[in-house]
Specification:
Layout (H helix, E strand, L loop, with lengths): L2 E3 L6 E3 L1 E4 L9 H13 L4 E3 L15 H10 L8 E6 L20 H15 L4 E6 L8 H13 L3 E7 L3 H14 L4 E5 L13 H8 L2 E2 L24 H8 L1 H10 L2 H17 L3 H10 L7 E3 L6 H6 L8 H13 L6
Parallel strand pairs: 3-4, 3-10, 4-5, 5-6, 6-7, 7-8, 8-9
Antiparallel strand pairs: 1-2
Helix pairs in contact: 4-5, 7-8, 9-10, 9-12
Length: 338
């Protein structure tokens, strides 16, 4: 499998990263372990999780995903796995953290407690990449970045990253690190797919100029780009089928991913994939691997067989003609996810 460097760090990872956010909820432990083994055997060496997983976040099962991943990790040589996890952001913002009674924040207290708990659940004494799951733009950046820097110096973390960050937030963090001699963010983990190209508007330039790597999540737009929600379908057990039933914030999220515009663009991309003789899943994954600012694309699965079409993307080279077709859809149906 192809590989690429994380930012300007010494860590090189497979260009496909195995995401785990449904392990322990949508996928039970036995299924999760089989998926992890299949990914590893296929050459994936990069695995992403979070203290807040599985999703949807719940205090009843927060941390379960790390525990499953930790049990799997014991079956592998630790140095053969590049392991990433995340600390919750503030609970007074757009989402409430499922850890620490929902009183999460990006300060020394929370970050220290979070890393220690994650290391226990994962059964390891270090993680390769430690990320802030979402930012707190109202707090002093120094409070979080100094503590994260200390974790690197203590050997508990190799490199740092952020997630769900803005262009301003990333640049502000990089400047604070430069001014104080802190270890900086080498990666940013944001939503990026054929149905959500907003990262290209500003953040892509920041990454290219500053040497920060995007490790995109949801390259299949939450499974929408597979076509399984087209024609009004709500597949039983699928994430957004469940989210619509849950109502509230989860239903609002599902509506962002599944709407008339996103389903129309999905059909157009499915037609392009059919013309190439490949699965739309393979097309969408291959497209997300291509940009220079991307190091590794985070994929997800709730069944082993779902990995087959994803793994095929590693060998798919998209021609200039195909890329032009894709860009034409994006120009005609701009920002399907708002």
């Amino acid at each position: 499998m192809q590989s690429k460097r994380l930012g300007r760090s010494a860590i090189v990872v497979s260009k496909i990263c195995m995401g785990t956010m449904t392990f322990g909820s949508q996928a039970d432990e036995a299924t999760s372990l089989r998926i992890l083994d299949k990914a590893f055997d296929a050459g994936i060496d990069f695995y992403d999780t979070a203290e807040n997983y599985p999703v949807p976040p719940s205090e009843d099962w927060a941390g379960r995903t790390e525990e499953i991943l930790g049990r799997w990790l014991k079956t592998k040589r630790r140095d053969a796995v590049i392991l990433a996890t995340k600390v919750c952001g503030p609970s007074h913002g757009w989402i409430r953290g499922a850890q620490r009674a929902g009183m999460t924040a990006l300060d020394r207290h929370n970050i220290t407690r979070a890393i220690e708990a994650s290391l226990r659940r994962l059964g390891t004494d270090y993680v390769d990449l430690y990320q802030t799951h979402w930012p707190d733009h109202g707090a002093r950046h120094e409070d979080a970045l100094e503590t994260l820097d200390e974790l690197v110096r203590a050997g508990k973390v190799r490199v740092l990253g952020c997630s769900n960050e803005t262009a301003w937030g990333l640049m502000k963090s990089l400047q604070v690190c430069a001014d104080n001699g802190f270890h900086r963010y080498e990666t940013i983990q944001n939503n990026f797919s054929l149905n959500n190209r907003r990262f290209e508007d500003a953040l892509a330039q920041v990454c290219l100029q500053e040497g920060v790597s995007l490790i995109p999540y949801s390259p299949l737009a939450g499974g929408v780009l597979s076509g399984k929600y087209n024609d009004g379908r709500r597949p039983e057990g699928a994430r957004f089928s469940r989210y619509f039933d849950m109502g509230g914030r989860q239903a609002a999220m599902a509506q962002r991913f599944i709407n008339d515009k996103s389903l129309t663009s999905t059909q157009r991309f499915m037609d392009i994939a059919a013309g190439l003789g490949v699965s739309p899943v393979t097309l969408a994954t291959a497209w997300s691997l291509r940009p220079e600012f991307v190091a590794s694309t985070i994929v997800g699965a709730s069944r082993e067989d779902q990995l087959d079409e994803i793994l095929a993307a590693d060998a798919l080279v998209l021609s200039p003609e195909t890329l032009d077709q894709i860009d034409q859809v994006s120009r005609e149906l701009m920002y399907p996810m708002g």
